[in-house]
Design brief:
Chain B: It comes from Falsiruegeria mediterranea M17. The complex is a heterodimer of chains A (about 500) and B (about 350). Chain A is an alpha/beta fold. Chain A has 16 helices and 24 strands. Chain B has one domain (about 45-325): ABC transporter involved in vitamin B12 uptake, BtuC (Orthogonal Bundle). Chain B has helices at about 5-15, 20-40, 45-70, 80-100, 105-130, 135-155, 165-170, 170-175, 185-200, 205-215, 215-220, 225-250, 260-270, 285-305, 310-330, and strands spanning about 160, 175-180, 180, 255. Classes of the chains: A alpha/beta (about 500), B mainly alpha (about 350).
Chain lengths: ~500, ~350
């Protein structure tokens, strides 16, 4: 048994759980106790077995050996979400909502209230209204899911779980796509659920959040149970160390000073576009420029407008000393300006295809010889990329959708680097990847900048903006509120500009 | 995540023989054996030649449909398009007799006209889907009705017949052979090779696959999505016009019943061949086999009295459903770890 603190019977516990897929073991005798009114964080690097353990705890997978106990009784959990009847609800990382249906319809999906064979819409609406009020979510039961923000969708999932009277709520990286403000709101809900006596298990890669919200932390590494500790006994640093099993001394690479006299490679003046209002900034050769702000502050929109992904209303862009308008992504790519999306599953990679066609897709004209594609060159490029970016695939013929998040991100970086860019724009470079891979990505970014490529890093994770960037642009509601340099690049300054408490006049 | 380890380790050894890829070929082989057992004349040279020639129309159209479907689209208008092109070709050739006589020139004018119409009709379908942002299903459903009624109108409800003297000049395109194979079969072979090369060896083919897999990824990867999608419809139109060029000399006429249900046969050939209907994976080789399978079924039914020839559609329908069921490929295998 892990060094438990409480004597009360755990509401859900795993005892010596092992799991193998075929001949590949992924969990080795893992134990974990989940108690009512407690927030239990599950941390570990990608591939440590967290998702598998969560699926076993919620009945989606059956363990190869070991026992699951519900309130102290050995139980074989029914699969396919039927464990919800026992009050155990898993919220998947990819939210499970019907996009074209309303909030109310989603919450009651599959167990609609009926009276005399007809849907009792009034009762359902009232119930959903009650839940929404309860957690302080400002949306209507009749809103369509497709119109909601990701944070709101997440809340709807929680409402769904509440309506099912969940005793144990298991969440896979609930905060991965939330801004800090949204995360705060989300945590407020979590605390309220906790007070109601709900047990909460959540996976997160954000260790600061784990410190802030959880009571217990269980660490997995390579399928092994490393330890369960009270959160107050741990620091984010010690958690990271337990996760990787080694010192993480230099998460961020040393910063190369940029030549202050270096030419402005990109100069944007008074850019206005959908979601962007009157934005001006410069980018030097070899510089790493951070873009910080809340989600929806218009950071992505700025670069989609620059790269020809969306239309531009007014403003001028100067690239390499000459006025430039990229009216297509291809034109931007040919000039050497590439954008790496934050949405690697929907906009970045073809998940059903293999690595080779994914790698060469962006720079495909480069691989055309005569009329046909030069497949030897593609193979060589893949070999190079695997070496340079340390992409680990068990089999080069694996579908990209089966790679871990970290390896997908490395492949995506390799894909845009095939274009030999002069300006690389990376949106959320480390979303949903583990700390070891994060460190690698940071070093790749620094190395790319050191080669003279200008890099723009758009990120909602403040430490990475602070640790990586030479200068930081802060945006709020489509406008730039401040450009920070040197000592000013710190969390409190950035937050002030991002929240609109401070604003500098643009020259 | 680790869950995938098992499936990849298992499949790597089996790559030499992939049931999904070989499926259509095996099906065709079985059909041929059945045909031979029912009537040995099935494998006679005359019948095989006949079978290949008959497959050529649907086959050529289906090669074009493979591009459209791979890029995530659909074209329901091909049958009507073939009919209206055939009709206009005949009108133009009959009209050109006065000026150019009944020689080769007139036939060439007819063929040129067919190609221009095919490209144009494809372009219309493509632009309405991409620039007009209307679902391909709706666009081509609409043009299907338009083309069908146009040919009826041109023929005034009856039949358009090609001038008898031109027929004599044009006739060899369907009935003559070159190196032992009928001309339509040669056209089919050339279109197939060109289609295979385009799909598997060029950037264009890769773009079609990428767009069909995920249009957003394609857009963010600097692919001109609208242009590529429009081009797939243009290729489809070109294929229809080629098929029409070899079809017209067969009967020398066109009517409102020309090319009826060709769109469904073409789509069926594509799907039987293993191309995924929702896009992202296209197989030209499979499409060709699919077209051969469909024609072979009809041919076998002609050879036997066991099943009425009127049930041809039933047999084709069954084959389509079975083919797709087999391709789903999860029969007999444990459901995945998810």
């Amino acid at each position: 048994m892990p060094d438990g603190l409480s004597i009360s019977t755990p509401i859900l516990s795993a005892d010596g759980i092992s799991k193998s897929f075929g001949s590949v073991p992924v969990l080795f005798s893992v134990s974990m106790d989940i108690r009512a009114g407690e927030v239990h964080a599950l941390i570990g690097e990608n591939g440590a077995g967290k998702s598998t353990l969560m699926k076993i705890l919620s009945g989606f997978l059956q363990p190869t050996s070991g026992h699951i106990r519900v309130e102290g009784v050995d139980t074989e959990l029914p699969g396919n979400g039927l464990s919800e009847a026992l009050g155990i609800v898993l919220i998947h990382q990819e939210l499970n909502l019907a996009e074209q249906m309303t909030v109310e319809e989603n919450v009651f999906l599959g167990r609609e209230l009926q009276s005399r064979g007809v849907l009792d819409r009034t009762a359902m609406r009232a119930a959903v209204h009650g839940f929404l009020d309860d957690i302080g979510l400002d949306i209507s039961p009749q809103d369509r899911i497709s119109q909601l923000s990701i944070a709101q969708k997440q809340m709807v999932e929680i409402v769904k779980a509440m309506s099912r009277d969940a005793k144990v709520l298991i969440m896979d990286e609930p905060t991965a796509v939330l801004t800090e403000a949204e995360t705060e709101l989300f945590f407020a809900q979590v605390r309220r659920l906790k007070e109601r006596g709900t047990a909460i298990v959540f996976v997160s890669h954000k260790l600061a959040e784990v410190s802030a919200i959880s009571d217990q932390v269980t660490v997995l590494r390579d399928g092994q149970w490393i330890g369960t500790h009270a959160t107050k006994d741990l620091t984010p640093d010690s958690m990271a160390q337990m996760m990787v099993g080694r010192e993480l001394s230099d998460l961020y690479p040393p910063m190369n000073e940029v030549d202050v006299d270096a030419d402005h490679l990109l100069s944007v003046q008074n850019l206005t576009a959908p979601g962007v209002h009157d934005v001006s900034f410069d980018l030097r050769k070899g510089e790493i420029l951070g873009f910080s702000g809340l989600i929806g502050a218009g950071r992505t929109a700025v670069f989609e407008a620059i790269c020809g992904l969306s239309s531009r209303r007014s403003g001028s862009i100067e690239f390499d000393g000459a006025s430039a308008t990229f009216d297509s992504v291809a034109a931007a790519r040919d000039a050497g300006v590439v954008y790496l999306t934050k949405d690697r599953k929907e906009k970045g990679l073809l998940l059903g295809q293999k690595m080779r066609p994914n790698l060469s897709l962006f720079a495909l004209p480069k691989f055309v010889k005569g009329l046909s594609l030069d497949q030897k060159a593609e193979d060589a490029a893949l070999e190079r990329a695997i070496r340079r970016f340390d992409i680990r695939a068990r089999d080069p013929n694996v579908n990209v959708g089966d790679l871990s998040g970290g390896n997908q991100q490395k492949l995506l970086l390799a894909k845009v680097m095939e274009c030999d860019p002069r300006i690389l724009i990376i949106d959320e470079p480390t979303r949903g990847i583990d700390v070891g891979t994060k460190q690698q990505i940071y070093h790749f970014i620094a190395a790319i900048a050191a080669e003279g490529v200008s890099v723009v890093v758009i990120s909602s994770e403040m430490p990475e903006i602070i640790g990586l960037c030479h200068r930081v642009v802060v945006m709020r509601e489509g406008e730039i509120t401040g450009i920070l340099t040197g000592e000013d690049i710190n969390e409190s300054e950035i937050v002030r500009y991002a929240a609109g408490l401070k604003r500098e006049r643009q020259q | 995540m680790t869950e995938t380890a098992m499936s990849t380790a298992k499949s790597s050894k089996l790559n030499g023989f992939d049931l999904k890829t070989a499926g259509p070929a095996i099906a065709l082989l079985i059909l041929c054996v059945i045909g031979f057992l029912l009537n040995p004349a099935f494998l006679s040279e005359g019948n095989i030649t006949n079978l290949l020639t008959r497959s050529a129309f649907i086959g050529i159209i289906a090669v074009g449909a493979t591009f459209v479907i791979t890029a995530g689209g659909i074209d329901l208008s091909v049958g009507s398009m073939a009919a209206v092109i055939a009709g206009v070709m005949i009108i133009v050739m009959n009209g050109a007799v006065d000026t150019f006589g009944t020689g080769l020139t007139t036939v060439l004018i007819g063929c040129g006209c067919s190609i221009i119409l095919g490209l144009g009709a494809g372009l219309v379908n493509g632009l309405l889907t991409t620039k007009g942002k209307i679902e391909a299903f709706i666009v081509t459903l609409g043009t299907m009705g338009i083309y069908r009624s146009l040919v009826t109108y041109f023929a005034d409800g009856g039949t358009l017949s090609l001038n008898y003297d031109i027929r004599g000049v044009y006739r060899p395109v369907y009935y003559e052979s070159f190196l032992g194979l009928p001309i339509p079969v040669w056209v089919f072979i050339i279109v197939s090779i060109a289609g295979w090369f385009l799909m598997n060896r060029t950037a264009f083919g890769r773009y079609c696959t990428a767009i069909g897999s995920n249009e957003s990824v394609a857009k963010y990867s600097a692919i001109k999505v609208d242009r590529v999608k429009t081009l797939t419809y243009v290729i489809q139109g070109l294929c229809v016009s080629l098929a029409t060029i070899i079809y017209v000399p067969r009967l020398g006429s066109a009517s409102s019943s020309t090319g009826v249900l060709w769109e469904l046969e073409a789509i069926a050939a594509v799907i039987i061949g293993g191309t995924v209907l929702k896009g992202g994976y296209g197989r030209i080789g499979g499409t060709i086999l699919g077209a051969l399978i469909l024609t072979t079924i009809g041919n076998i039914l002609n050879f036997t009295d066991m099943i009425s020839n009127y049930l041809n559609g039933t047999m084709q329908g069954l084959i389509i459903i079975i083919a797709v069921w087999l391709q789903r490929g999860d029969w007999g295998r444990k459901t995945s770890a998810d």
